[in-house]
Write a structure and sequence with these properties.
Length: about 250
């Protein structure tokens, strides 16, 4: 049992060291990118912000700043795409919403920005990243292992109460996860093609053309096409390769 506990502690320590090292790298990149942005070197700043993505750093502030870089460079689809990524991770943020409104006003189609974030999107963004649950699981397992190892030193009643509290916590987490699974956020896509037709749902005619930077809500996939609707209620099929889905 002691060897298993030592192995568990070593694994947990390794995870913590890796997380701290990654965080240190990310902070260094973030400072460097901010300085480049202040100097007006938007292309280089964007490259450094994107290096943070490779470290699996998905903070809303990173995507917001990356969107600003692309907007300054006149690359509207990429700017909107990153603003929407920031909006998913920080719903109801006034700065993000303001920049999205301005960006959509500058698109060819000028379809008004409509925030698809919900209360459940906010909960998922704030409280349920998968790293959080891995950390909780590791900590609970470590504590339960300690209880099992030193059970003779712990009052049985206290031990039982602690385990019951842990079970209640996990049940609460399970229920919340199920609620969030049922209330899935809308699938958002941004048009990256310079122009693409929207075909009627019966596949018989083209309803209209939409242009780069336009936001669509993806409903389903069928072969090489996506069934989408726009904020102005237009609904139809669009080629999948013309859309880049926001994740």
């Amino acid at each position: 049992m002691k060897k298993k506990l030592l192995l568990l502690i070593l694994c947990f320590s390794g995870q913590m060291y890796w997380a701290i090292d990654k965080q240190s790298q990310a902070e260094s990149y973030f400072k460097e990118a901010n300085l480049l942005y202040q100097k007006g070197e938007f292309g280089q700043a964007a490259e450094v912000y994107q290096q943070m993505e490779q470290l699996e750093v998905e903070a809303a502030e990173v995507y917001f700043n990356l969107g600003n870089c692309f907007y300054k460079m006149g690359q509207l689809p990429q700017a909107i795409f990153n603003y929407e990524k920031a909006n998913i991770r920080a719903p109801f943020n006034e700065k993000i919403e303001s920049n999205l409104t301005v960006a959509y006003d500058n698109t060819h189609d000028k379809i008004a920005f409509k925030n698809t974030a919900t209360f459940f999107t906010y909960l998922k963004a704030k409280f349920l990243p998968y790293q959080f649950w891995i950390f909780v699981f590791t900590m609970v397992m470590a504590v339960l292992s300690l209880i099992a190892l030193y059970n003779h030193r712990i009052n049985r009643k206290s031990s039982f109460s602690f385990i019951m509290y842990s079970i209640v916590l996990w049940c609460f987490g399970l229920v919340l996860t199920l609620i969030l699974a049922v209330n899935k956020p809308s699938r958002i896509g941004i048009v990256f093609a310079s122009q693409t037709p929207v075909i009627a749902t019966d596949h018989k005619q083209t309803i209209r053309n939409i242009h780069e930077g336009t936001k669509v809500i993806i409903e389903e996939e069928q072969g090489t096409y996506l069934l989408v609707h726009l904020s102005d209620v237009t609904k139809g099929w669009v080629k999948k390769d013309a859309i880049k889905e926001v994740d």
